[in-house]
């Protein structure tokens, strides 16, 4: 009796599974706020150099005076002529004090430390260490997850997230800020994917698709929206970090609620431990498993260990010409999409609308994008969905760049609409890429291959704060760079083999042969055949195929 069979007897779609999904939803909500906390604390409102003659003027009057200069936010004035004449003169001294038009009276870290103008580089430098931490954390907690167990590694990852955010409250210089953001970044990815593994193991496939989609789409979206509301409510970046970091400590209670991975315990030759976890699951689900079932499971585990063959080594992948090329192409696509997602999800400033409102609007695209992505992949396959999503997102990103660069007084509604559409597109791109990448890597090296992909994506994301910072010099710069990256990514996707409706490779030998004879546009013909076949099916059969 294998694991799936004994889990079915313990219950794989009952009380414990709903508890797991509920805890995973809570985790997605809390980690969503944590992941984007560094953006919220770094929002920079409209600002101008301080001048004593402007103390009793409103912000519209101040903006009108400074907008006649090339760099209104960083230009220091000696004298000001309020009559509109030529009496306003520019000082050659650097600005050392600013007037801020705070959004909803929220005071960010950048405004409190005056990290603007000549000091504006400090925020992206410090934030880049957040992604360095993510890269290291993926490796460290992935290793710990295999050594000490998923639950303990999950708790440690979220504790470091709390420690990093809480410590940031006491920073007032670039070095301290960089260190605390590195510690906070250690939790990224590890603080969710370890729980994701546990849910996949204990939840039935029928509940898995709907449950995980709802958790990741709805609750991650709610977390992003609540992060904006929380910041506006507390009004200060230190209070925001305090309120957003404390919920991460709730994960400690998962130790008493979530059962350790039974499959992991089997790989550690702790079959007795695996049996105890399964018995607890059965007890929570009010099921009973007989001694004969337990003995059958023990026999299966013992035989599996005895018949265990030598596994493929990840280094052997580099010796397979075709698979090696496919893997590096997949790695390139994963890196590009990860960078673009990080940039676009954080590019909410300088659009003529409050970053809090923009942040919330873009978050609303997440649940819808998951539904659209699933339908597109069922219709035109993994390759077709990835190529079309990246191309269309690139087009809308290019349109946004054109509007920002050519229209000095561009319509706020138009710019916001283009950015929301682009944000929706990158969400579809990310979901498609995650599934496409998983299916391209042979099962025997899939875990290690995807770990490397996540590390590479985190490493590439180091560039995202700097690409965003280019927008302070030229508003359209991030959009132009993103557009080029999307088009390049679409071309590389065309070089990859289709994986939909095909037997996926298990060994490296199968991976070497997989898609070897595929041509660049073969997916168009295959997707057209599948679409026609689906249209010819009876409605009930079509519905079952679409949901599978």
What is shown here, in short?
This protein is mostly helical and 548 residues long. It has helices at 3-10, 15-35, 37-40, 59-66, 109-112, 122-147, 150-168, 174-185, 190-202, 205-234, 237-245, 254-257, 262-267, 271-284, 291-306, 321-346, 355-363, 365-406, 412-440, 446-460, 464-469, 477-494, 508-513, 522-536, 539-547; strands at residues 46-49, 77-79, 89-90, 98-101. Helix 10 (205-234) runs antiparallel to helix 11 (237-245).
Describe the fold and architecture.
67% of the residues lie in helices and 2% in strands. It is built from 25 helices and 4 strands. The longest helix has 42 residues. The chain is globular. The C terminus is likely disordered.
Annotation, overall tally of beta strands:
4
Distance between the termini: 25 Å
Order of helices and strands: HHHEHEEEHHHHHHHHHHHHHHHHHHHHH
The order of strands across the largest sheet is 1-4
Q: Average pLDDT value?
A: 82
- Uncertain segments are 533-548
Instruction: Please count the helical segments.
Output: 25
Largest sheet: 2 strands, antiparallel
* Cα Rg: 26 Å
Helix/strand-derived class? mainly alpha
Strand content: under 5%
Broad shape: globular
- Please give the share of residues in helix: 55-70%
